[in-house]
Amino acid sequence: MVRSSRGEASPGMWRREAGTVVxxxxxxxxxxxxxxxxxxxxxxxxxxxxPTEWAPHSHPRHELVWVRGGTLTSRVxxxxxxxxxxxxxxxxxxxxxxxxATAGAEFHDAFFAxxxxxxxxxxAEPTAIAMTSLLESLLIxxxxxxxxxxxxxxxxxxxxxxxxxxxxxxxxxxxxxxxIDAIAEALxxxxxxxxxxxxxxxxxxxxxxxITRAFRLATGLSFAQWRQVLRVHRALTLLSEGLDVATVxxxxxxxxxxxFIAAFRRVMGTTPGAFFDAADGTAQGVRNPVSGVQxx
Length: 296
Description:
Blueprint lengths: L20 E3 L17 E6 L5 E6 L4 E7 L2 E6 L2 E6 L2 E5 L5 E5 L4 E7 L14 E4 L2 H9 L7 H14 L8 E3 L7 H9 L7 H8 L3 H12 L3 H18 L4 H7 L5 H12 L3 H11 L14
Parallel strand pairs: 1-3
Antiparallel strand pairs: 2-9, 3-8, 4-7, 4-9, 5-6, 5-8, 6-11, 7-10
């Protein structure tokens, strides 16, 4: 059995990579010292040189985070969000969350003043966002400290017009059921674990029907469907790191790359190659190579 990564176990998240640094909450980017009023949007950029994890925290402002050249994983209650280039994650003010970014990724964040954010009601929950080239360009533009008030207001108003949820399923619902949580933790630790439903039942000392009902009730998916979604989410990180489809397929326990590609299409609505090609087309910039992401 091939492990998808190595490192310390982290409950409710993917297994930590070796050398991961755990930090406290992100600090808000500094705003222009001569600004007479707080900015509606404060944007910034950092590049973690090593795998970096942020302990559970919250912010007084809404937060939008996205990456180039890697992936960002965030745990919010019983959900794990995985976003790669071309996608971002909206986190409402006050929502407790933890996060993890791969080494070398450009980590972008933008903080929105809640009382001055007109679309906040539409994103009352953590939401995956489509990071179009226009939205990225506007937010990078707003990271400048030399914009006058009128230029900033114009750019901010366009951000409010163009921000839209992603059409892809980028959240993995964890069971949150003590009867089956051990299965979820084991598969997060090793997505390639191919034990059957009957084998999991024997391991837990419960019936396979109990597991089936519990997964359906907690996640809306059968056990097999849920494991498929989990593997595809893990694949997003592995493919972003430059691994080819055949390697990722083997690491995640698939007998053939074609089986993995079919599973990816069922979950994401497109093949791995098309998914990352679309991300390259909407969010240009430096990223880890995925030239090996090819479809059969």
